[in-house]
Amino acid sequence: MAAEKSKTTISKKSITLAQKLIDQMLSLMGTEAKATAQEDKENEAIRIDIDAGEETGLLIGKHGETLDAMQLLLGMMMRQKQEDWVRIILNVGDWREKQEEHLKDLAFQAADRARETGEPQNLFNLSSSQRRIIHLALGSEKDIETESAGEGKERYLIVKQKS
Q1: Rounded CA gap, 104 and 102, in Å?
Q2: Which of 48, 66, 87, 155 is packed most tightly, with the most Cβ within 10 A?
Q3: What is the structure's pLDDT at 1?
Q4: How many domains does the chain have?
């Protein structure tokens, strides 16, 4: 097992910068949404929660694509403005929590199918962050292992019994 990495704290300067940048981004998008940036110690990140009211669906986009794009862009903007890279977690409503719960359910269903059939279960059309959630969810299962296969957009996750 890899050595445990040291916990880092996010500076108030970084949180203030993230707040300023997300406020500018939302303003440029012409939305009435309000954002709150804060430190997420568990994930060693800046967590930004957006209250978008009726515009929630617009900011999440199809399968979270707009939200993921905004998160990526915000991370890149943060990197340009400061020396250190800081992980950003952008959330609208409870979308990320609901998505994570759905992915964990999917992971355990795939693990159960792998146990019942003895056949590896392939999970397609997952982003790298979605694959990571499934890897972590099944990491403590003694008889199940996960691995990613394929390249680029063809990358997928395999859930199988340990041999």
Answers
A1: 6
A2: 48
A3: 40
A4: 2
